[in-house]
Amino acid sequence: MRLLIADDHALILDMLQNFLKQEKDMEIVATTNLQEAISALSSHPRFDLALLDYDMPGMDGLHGLQRFMELDAAPAAVIISGNAMRDVAERAVQMGARGFLHKSMPAQSLLHAIRFMALGERFVPVDFMFALGFSDTPPASDTLSATALTARELEVLKALCDGKTNKEIARDLGLREPTIKLHVKTLYRRLGASNRTQAAMMARSSGLY
Question: Is this prediction's pTM over 0.85?
Answer without folding.
Answer: no
